[in-house]
Specification:
Low-confidence stretches: 1-22, 173-186, 303-308
Largest sheet: 5 strands, parallel
Order of helices and strands: HEHHHHHEHEHHEHEHEEHHEHEEH
Strand content: 5-15%
Helix content: 40-55%
Strand order of the largest sheet: 4-3-5-6-8
Oligomer: single chain
Length: 430
Amino acid sequence: MPSVGRSQFVHKQKSIMTEVGTIATNLSTLQTNVYSMFAQLRATGMQPLPADTLRPALIPSEQCFVQRLTPRGSIGILGVDHHAICKNASLPLPGCWNQIFPECEGVLRRGLGLQRLAATYLGRYQGTAAGDLSASHLAAVARSSHLKMLFIGDSTMVHVAQSAQCELQRTNVSAEQLAEQLAGLRNATQIERFELRGGEFASDDIMDATLKKLRTQLSRIANTGGGAVVAMFPGVHFNPTPGQSIDTVLHTYQTRVNKFVDVLGDFTTSQVCSMCVAILVTVFSQHFETPDGVYSASKMKVAAASSRDDSCVPWSATAAAASGTDPSPSMWASSREVKRPDDWMLPASSANSWRSDEVMRSAASRQPNVLLVPMHWLTSAWDGRHPGIRSRRGERTIDCTHFCFTPFLYEPVWWTLRAAISAATGNAIP
């Protein structure tokens, strides 16, 4: 009996390793396609949807919410009368439009004409657009694979995870079935979070303890049927402090990123799991009023008497040039080592560049089974999507790091996750 058991075990291990090799080949091809798709999305930007396309992509309560942002008596962006939509909105609005940041509704309302609302907040990347609600990429993953989903990262990734929950809440074929099907979808995917805080990567000892906990959680997933990981390194917490050498910061960052990427890579090649998928989202761009948009403590507070309400700014070529040149080119990832858009305006020495460049370089060179999602190619243009000025404990501060939820904001991530799982299984997800 022991010999038979051992034989079965060896056969299973060989089978899994063969599957892992096939997955690696599929993911290599997919990675090329992902880069191509995101370059296309960056070039075209979000496109406003015509009314007949927008209406079926929103649930009734969302349609009513959007309509209420338009002037009273106006036909509005959805092409129908205000009351005609809102009288049918029997469901409460999911807490997604204002999730975490109540300021986001103010962002939506502030001086917003119909054209800007359509282009900015209800725009959609056409290359990854799923269609109407029933065609949602994330809902398709939930219904087809029943995989656990683990979202790993700091507060920016927490909001992506919350947006995933919102997407499952809003993507139902009919409004009548929403309440009874919600729990089923959430239970099927078992969305989990592993939140990282900047301080947990401040020293080797604390970081190693954090990554040990992460390995334990990933091991549990691998041993219970596998799952899909959506991860982001907490790169926004790495900034040179006054008097600190950029060489020191970058060396520390590279070391931390490598260890983080290796944990994800080990998960994807687990010998007990043939369906362990990891996608690594690059660090989101910031848009503070600094030369290159990177966070600065001096730009965080707003005078109480200030009437300023437009706090996050787009990058400009002039400002980017003023942020400085690359003093030691050998320190930074070059265009030969990482994919970088031809129109990327910031120098490699800007944190808005190297935070993501180093993540891409590390994963590509160390763990090719981890699929890279270059979201910074898109978030670099999201300066108008931040909460902006926020009031916290009597102080007015500026948030140009996080983003306000809109229904199609993270659709490129859901598209990539769906493609990654399809590549891993060898079957398209219907």
